[in-house]
Structure formats: structure tokens, C-alpha cells
Design goal:
It contains eleven helices and six strands. By secondary structure, the protein is of the alpha/beta class. The chain has a single domain, classed as Alpha/Beta hydrolase fold, catalytic domain (Rossmann fold, 3-Layer(aba) Sandwich), CATH 3.40.50.1820. Strand 5, helix 9 and strand 6 form a beta-alpha-beta unit.
């Protein structure tokens, strides 16, 4: 049986952010999505850290009896995915023995070091959340291919559903927390999908702070698509995932 596909969403997203990609994934592959803590309908965890999120996902995989799997993380989910992979390579006791990560896919990932967001923008995002207008502005600034009305509404809804504690944690701690040392120990194949037109995380940062820091990493560069790739061009993303 082919390994399951586990998908981790972006900051301000939820498991529903993958619904368009899922339509193009093979019917014979088990596809697993989560609302990460504080996002969607998942309650926040106390005193969170990148490692706490990683442990939470490993626990969910155990509860769902996931055996072999490939892990795909988008943006914030990419940083958590890298940390999860490092836990397996270091034989962490918090990695269930019944679960086995076989490959890692990173879509426009938050860097293993620090995400390049100006403090002024962090201040604005923190001060205006939750707000329909601010959510719309954030989504429109992140996409290159304009989202349909239905997709834009979904992106706004998941943005507004994000708990304030999770929102603040990522802006003030999560995106600045370096996992570069841990990421350098990853021992599974790592595929990275990034756009040279990404308005949120420049391709130069992906090359320097992900590709050059993670062993066995290969980079696929696309263009004319933005940071919200799974919602902008789901067929592109799905075809890339199937090839992992």
C-alpha cells in the first residue's frame, strides 16, 4: 500500500484550505488533514512552541493509526513539518514507533531560520486581527492568481477563525524561532516547491534558509503563482505531491 499523504496548512488557514488540492490526489491514497491547534476548529495548546506543534501532530498520527506517510507542509506548516522530520531523525521518544515518515514536501515553507517579515507588518497584523477587511487585504497581498469569490471567502473565514493566542504566537515567536540546527539532521528526501513570484517569502530566502540547510533537498521553482499555491493552482500542487 502506498504511504498516506499528511497535509499541514498555512498560517491563518485550516484543514479546509486543502479541499481543492484533495480533489486531484489519487483515490487509492489515504489523505490526512488537521486543523492545527488554534486554527480552524482545533483548540489552542498552552504555552506553544514549534516543537509542541510537532508533538501534537505526531500524536494525531498515532491516534489515526497512520503507518508509512509522506508529510507536506505549506508555509507555517512547512516549518512544523521540518521539525517533525528532525524528531524522527534524532529518534525522539515522542515519535510513535508505529508511524514512519518516508518523505517531506515543503510548499513555500517558512524558513528554518526566521521568516522575513518586517516588525511593522507584524504589529499591523496583530493589531487588526480578527477583521474581515484585514483578512481580505492579507489574502489579496499573498496571492498572485486572484482567488475566486468562493475561495477568497473560505480564506477569509479560516483567517477569522484563528484564535488570537495562536495568531500572536506565530507572529511574535513561531516565525522567528530558528530550527536550523534540527533541520540539518533530517534524513529523508525533501522536495521543495516555491514560486519566484511569491510576495510573502522571497525565493532567495527559500534557497538560503531551506534548500541550503536541509540535507537531500531538491527545489522546484515555478512562476506566476503566489504564496497561497494550494488555493491558487491546486492542480499544480496536487501533481507535485503525487510525485513525492
Amino acid at each position: 500500500m502506498a504511504p498516506a499523504i499528511v497535509l499541514l496548512h498555512y498560517f491563518g488557514g485550516s484543514s479546509e484550505s486543502w479541499q481543492y488540492v484533495r480533489k486531484y490526489l489519487p483515490d487509492d491514497r489515504q489523505v490526512v488533514t488537521f486543523d492545527l491547534p488554534g486554527f480552524g476548529r482545533s483548540p489552542m495548546i498552552p504555552d506553544p512552541s514549534i516543537r509542541d506543534y510537532s508533538i501534537w501532530v505526531w500524536e494525531q498520527l498515532k491516534l489515526r493509526s497512520i503507518g508509512r506517510f509522506v508529510l507536506v507542509g505549506h508555509s507555517m506548516g512547512g516549518k512544523i513539518a521540518m521539525d517533525m522530520a528532525s524528531m524522527q531523525s534524532s529518534a525522539s521518544t515522542e515519535v510513535p514507533r508505529t508511524c514512519r515518515l518516508q518523505g517531506l514536501g515543503l510548499i513555500a515553507p517558512s524558513p528554518a531560520t526566521r521568516e522575513p517579515m518586517p516588525e511593522s507588518k507584524k504589529d499591523k497584523l496583530e493589531a487588526t486581527h480578527p477583521s474581515v477587511t484585514a483578512a481580505q487585504e492579507m489574502i489579496d497581498e499573498s496571492a498572485v492568481i486572484p482567488l475566486s469569490e468562493r475561495r477568497r471567502l473560505l480564506a477569509v473565514q479560516t483567517n477569522l477563525m484563528t484564535e488570537s493566542t495562536a495568531w500572536r504566537w506565530w507572529l511574535r515567536k513561531g516565525m522567528d524561532h530558528s530550527i536550523a540546527t534540527a533541520a540539518s539532521t533530517i534524513d529523508v528526501p525533501v522536495a521543495i516547491l516555491a514560486s519566484e513570484d511569491d510576495p510573502v517569502i522571497p525565493i532567495a530566502n527559500i534557497r538560503r534558509d531551506v534548500v541550503n540547510r536541509v540535507p537531500r533537498a531538491s527545489l522546484t521553482v515555478v512562476s506566476s503563482v503566489g504564496h497561497l499555491m494550494p488555493m491558487e493552482d491546486e492542480r499544480l500542487v496536487a501533481d507535485w505531491i503525487v510525485g513525492l
